[in-house]
Amino acid sequence: MKDMKMGMIESRFADMIWEHEPVSVSELLRIGAEEFNWKRTTTYTVLKRLRDRGIFQNEGRVVTSLISREEFYSLQSELFVEETFHGSLPAFVAAFTSRKKLTAEEAAEIRRLIDSYKEE
Questions:
Q1: What are the DSSP E strand ranges found in the chain?
Q2: How confident is the model over 9-29, as pLDDT tens digits?
Protein backbone atom coordinates (compact mmCIF):
# COMPACT_ATOMS: atom_id res chain seq x y z
CA MET A 1 0.00 0.00 0.00
CA LYS A 2 1.23 3.48 -0.83
CA ASP A 3 2.07 5.90 1.95
CA MET A 4 -1.29 7.46 2.70
CA LYS A 5 -0.29 9.59 5.64
CA MET A 6 -1.14 13.27 5.36
CA GLY A 7 -0.12 16.35 7.22
CA MET A 8 -2.68 18.72 8.69
CA ILE A 9 -2.82 21.03 5.66
CA GLU A 10 -2.99 18.12 3.22
CA SER A 11 -5.85 16.66 5.30
CA ARG A 12 -7.77 19.93 5.21
CA PHE A 13 -7.23 20.21 1.44
CA ALA A 14 -8.28 16.57 0.93
CA ASP A 15 -11.43 17.19 2.99
CA MET A 16 -12.27 20.11 0.71
CA ILE A 17 -11.85 17.92 -2.35
CA TRP A 18 -14.09 15.24 -0.85
CA GLU A 19 -16.71 17.90 0.01
CA HIS A 20 -16.75 19.35 -3.52
CA GLU A 21 -16.01 16.38 -5.78
CA PRO A 22 -16.09 16.10 -8.63
CA VAL A 23 -14.24 19.39 -8.64
CA SER A 24 -12.42 21.17 -11.44
CA VAL A 25 -8.77 22.07 -11.08
CA SER A 26 -9.68 25.73 -11.58
CA GLU A 27 -12.07 25.50 -8.60
CA LEU A 28 -9.32 23.89 -6.50
CA LEU A 29 -6.99 26.73 -7.45
CA ARG A 30 -9.62 29.20 -6.25
CA ILE A 31 -10.17 27.26 -3.02
CA GLY A 32 -6.42 27.02 -2.42
CA ALA A 33 -6.04 30.77 -2.86
CA GLU A 34 -9.05 31.69 -0.69
CA GLU A 35 -8.76 29.14 2.12
CA PHE A 36 -4.99 28.75 2.40
CA ASN A 37 -3.60 31.84 0.66
CA TRP A 38 -1.74 29.49 -1.69
CA LYS A 39 -0.21 30.29 -5.05
CA ARG A 40 -1.21 28.11 -7.99
CA THR A 41 2.02 26.14 -7.76
CA THR A 42 1.38 25.23 -4.12
CA THR A 43 -2.10 23.92 -4.92
CA TYR A 44 -0.71 21.89 -7.83
CA THR A 45 2.06 20.48 -5.60
CA VAL A 46 -0.31 19.39 -2.82
CA LEU A 47 -2.75 17.92 -5.36
CA LYS A 48 0.11 16.01 -7.00
CA ARG A 49 1.18 14.56 -3.63
CA LEU A 50 -2.36 13.37 -2.94
CA ARG A 51 -2.61 11.93 -6.47
CA ASP A 52 0.74 10.15 -6.12
CA ARG A 53 -0.52 8.52 -2.90
CA GLY A 54 -3.49 7.09 -4.79
CA ILE A 55 -6.11 9.11 -2.94
CA PHE A 56 -7.32 11.29 -5.84
CA GLN A 57 -7.13 11.35 -9.61
CA ASN A 58 -7.11 14.23 -12.06
CA GLU A 59 -8.63 13.36 -15.40
CA GLY A 60 -9.60 16.04 -17.88
CA ARG A 61 -8.83 18.69 -15.25
CA VAL A 62 -11.54 17.23 -12.99
CA VAL A 63 -10.46 15.82 -9.63
CA THR A 64 -12.26 12.85 -8.10
CA SER A 65 -11.40 10.48 -5.28
CA LEU A 66 -10.04 6.98 -5.69
CA ILE A 67 -10.81 6.27 -2.04
CA SER A 68 -13.66 7.74 0.01
CA ARG A 69 -13.08 9.91 3.06
CA GLU A 70 -14.52 7.16 5.26
CA GLU A 71 -12.22 4.53 3.74
CA PHE A 72 -9.22 6.81 4.11
CA TYR A 73 -9.82 7.57 7.78
CA SER A 74 -10.61 3.92 8.46
CA LEU A 75 -7.22 2.99 6.98
CA GLN A 76 -5.56 5.71 9.05
CA SER A 77 -7.16 4.33 12.20
CA GLU A 78 -6.02 0.81 11.40
CA LEU A 79 -2.46 2.01 10.71
CA PHE A 80 -2.40 3.97 13.96
CA VAL A 81 -3.51 0.97 16.02
CA GLU A 82 -1.05 -1.27 14.18
CA GLU A 83 1.92 1.08 14.59
CA THR A 84 1.18 2.31 18.11
CA PHE A 85 -0.45 -0.68 19.81
CA HIS A 86 1.00 -3.56 17.77
CA GLY A 87 -2.41 -4.09 16.20
CA SER A 88 -4.18 -4.60 19.52
CA LEU A 89 -7.57 -2.89 19.50
CA PRO A 90 -8.12 -3.75 23.21
CA ALA A 91 -4.81 -2.02 24.06
CA PHE A 92 -5.95 1.06 22.12
CA VAL A 93 -9.33 1.14 23.89
CA ALA A 94 -7.64 0.69 27.27
CA ALA A 95 -5.27 3.59 26.55
CA PHE A 96 -8.08 5.79 25.24
CA THR A 97 -10.40 5.16 28.17
CA SER A 98 -7.69 5.56 30.80
CA ARG A 99 -7.94 9.34 30.32
CA LYS A 100 -11.45 9.77 28.95
CA LYS A 101 -14.28 7.85 30.53
CA LEU A 102 -17.05 6.62 28.25
CA THR A 103 -20.62 7.74 28.73
CA ALA A 104 -23.26 5.04 29.07
CA GLU A 105 -24.42 5.88 25.54
CA GLU A 106 -20.88 5.56 24.13
CA ALA A 107 -20.35 2.23 25.87
CA ALA A 108 -23.68 0.92 24.56
CA GLU A 109 -22.82 2.05 21.02
CA ILE A 110 -19.42 0.35 21.21
CA ARG A 111 -21.09 -2.86 22.41
CA ARG A 112 -23.52 -2.69 19.46
CA LEU A 113 -20.62 -2.15 17.05
CA ILE A 114 -18.65 -5.05 18.51
CA ASP A 115 -21.68 -7.34 18.33
CA SER A 116 -22.36 -6.40 14.71
CA TYR A 117 -18.74 -6.91 13.58
CA LYS A 118 -17.50 -9.83 15.65
CA GLU A 119 -16.68 -13.07 13.90
CA GLU A 120 -19.10 -15.92 14.37
A1: 23-24, 56-59, 62-65
A2: 999 999 999 999 999 999 999
